[in-house]
Amino acid sequence: MSWKIRQKLRAQLAAETNLSITGHGRGGDLSICLVYANRYSTGMGNLGFQTIYRLLAGSTGLQCERAFLPERDDLEEYRRSGTPLLSLETQRPLADFDVIAFSTSFEPDYLNIPIILSLSGIPLYAAERTQSNPLIIAGGAAFFINPEPVADFLDVICIGEGEEIIPGLVAALLSPRQDETRQALLTDLAAVTGIYVPSLYHPTYSQGLVSGYEVSKGAPFPVVRASACLDQHHPSASQILSEGIEFGDMFLIEVSRGCPRGCRFCSSGFIYGTFRQQPYEHLTALVEEGLVHRGKIGLVGAAVSDYADIGRLCRYIVDQGGRVSVSSLRIDRIDPEMLDALIASGHKTISLAPEGGSQRLRDLIRKNLTEAQILEACEMLVSRDILNLKLYVIIGLPTETDADLDELVRLVSAIRERVIERARANKRLGEITLSVNPFIPKPFTPFQWCGMEPLPSLERKVKFLESSLRPLSNVRLKVESLRECYQQALLSRGDRRLAPLLVAMAGGANLKKGAKACGIDTDRYVHREIAAAEFLPWSVIASAGSAMLRREYERALAEEGEAA
């Protein structure tokens, strides 16, 4: 085995500050390795991963360690030396664990699951594993949306929130049973709320489309997402601190879960159920703990600005001598007290998310924002000498026209004028960054039936924005990779027939060559508009409001027709 790899793992472990997790669990015969389906620098900056590690490592009866996708240079070292993928804590080969549990937040990380299994010497497909192989479990936000593209690789998938699922999962894993076979364990696990055992569900096809599932006796259909009551659990916060990772200079605290807005394109407002907020007193106690270790507190949540006491909480952090950081701000929820705290914390750039470039598109996606509100928010920021603004917008939304792009350029110009006017008074330049992302249809949203706009059309729109914004000094255009977004759309809308393609890509093939070799028409997954009566591959997961989603979709199109 590679001495170089072991030394690097030991150095990573030595650089960590462990705040509340002692050892690797509370003892016991069951060994579990929690694997983030990306690299260490990303995984240890992910609050969800840290929370699951705390829950597992704090469980009686098991030993829990961690592992990650190797960095690019290390990946070559693993392959060159023939070293199997090793855990961080004890440098133990993953294949020696009883359970491997993947934590996967984003669909693009699905591509890393077969890579990690291959590096570990574990059969890729669940059907090929024997009693001697680890049980492969997975969970995370990506699986709330659509687990099907990787379902054939996994024995068990957790659909829902860890605080609610893990106690029942651990109890089932540790429970003695007369029949100790792998199949008996899977059958027992399928009875746990929020647990999906793919081998008990067999998709059927008609005319090249998924038409339903044949479900084994005793398995629930559909699988219900597990949702936690946050005030009954310790708030999610940083458990292990390390330098050189994403958000490594912060102590992270989750203030809320879900989103109350319900924008028609965004899954956050639909997959987490009711918008839930942490009690203020719980968060201030964590702030005090966090400031012992880091000078900056990062507030986490899909809708941080909608937290009821956001201004009060930010002011508390500053009053305690700390600095505060948030991601983007909701334009109609810029709390002056929060803004003052951000400025006191040294923020030079504030991110806003108009998303729709025109009023018509903002109405279509139910963003509930007017141009006047956007300009008023920008004026509030520049009046406080925040002259660097980052604006998130989406192109390729359903029904988008060139006129919508023209209105987007006009909006950016109007914001720029306000920044320049203030910059002249201060004799300090500001910059506007327009961050452009293509629309990706997501399951469990009203727009899940829409197709993604073809890449040539999106490329034309990007060129239009480049040429239109080029004459505007101090405006920078940043565009998400269209091809990577196409791949994300494929994984968001795909079914189990994508598994061979992911295996091919894990072996080094690009998407185009891999799809050709596997005989997969990826455009059919990505661009096709789905008919109302069509069975959706992700329907294996329960949706409390599937009829509501369809009504919202039809209402959006009806409102569009009335406006025309």
SS summary, helix count: 21
Name the poorly predicted regions: none
**Mean pLDDT value:** 93
Count of DSSP E strands?
A: 20
CATH top level of the largest domain?
Alpha Beta
CATH fold-level name of the largest domain:
Transcription Regulator spoIIAA
List keywords for this structure.
564 residues; 21 helices; 5-stranded parallel beta sheet; 17% strand; alpha/beta; Transcription Regulator spoIIAA; 6-stranded mixed beta sheet
Descriptive notes:
With 564 residues, the protein is α/β, with parallel strands linked by helices. It has three domains: 3-215, no CATH class; 249-347, Transcription Regulator spoIIAA; 348-564, 2-Layer Sandwich (Transcription Regulator spoIIAA). Helix content is 38%, strand content 17%. The chain has a six-stranded mixed beta sheet, sandwiched between helices. Strands 16-17-18-19-20 form a five-stranded parallel beta sheet, with helices on one face. Helix 14 runs parallel beside helix 15 (402-426) and helix 18 packs across helix 19. The longest helix has 25 residues, at 402-426. The chain is globular and about 75 Å long. The protein starts with a helix and ends with a helix. The model has no long low-confidence stretch (mean pLDDT 93).
In short:
By secondary structure, the protein is an alpha/beta fold. The protein has 21 helices and 20 strands.
Question: What secondary-structure arrangement, pairings included, does this model have?
Answer:
Elements: H1 3-14, E1 17-18, E2 30-39, H2 40-43, H3 47-57, E3 62-69, H4 72-81, E4 99-103, H5 112-119, E5 135-139, H6 141-145, E6 156-158, H7 162-174, H8 182-189, E7 195-196, E8 201-206, E9 209-215, E10 240-241, E11 250-254, E12 256-257, H9 268-271, E13 276-277, H10 280-291, E14 296-300, H11 310-319, E15 323-325, E16 328-329, H12 336-344, E17 349-355, H13 359-364, H14 371-383, E18 388-395, H15 402-426, E19 431-438, H16 455-469, E20 475-479, H17 482-493, H18 499-506, H19 511-518, H20 522-527, H21 546-563
Parallel strand pairs: 2-3, 2-4, 4-5, 5-6, 11-14, 14-15, 16-17, 17-18, 18-19, 19-20
Antiparallel strand pairs: 1-10, 6-7, 8-9, 12-13
Helix pairs in contact: 3-7, 11-12, 14-15, 18-19
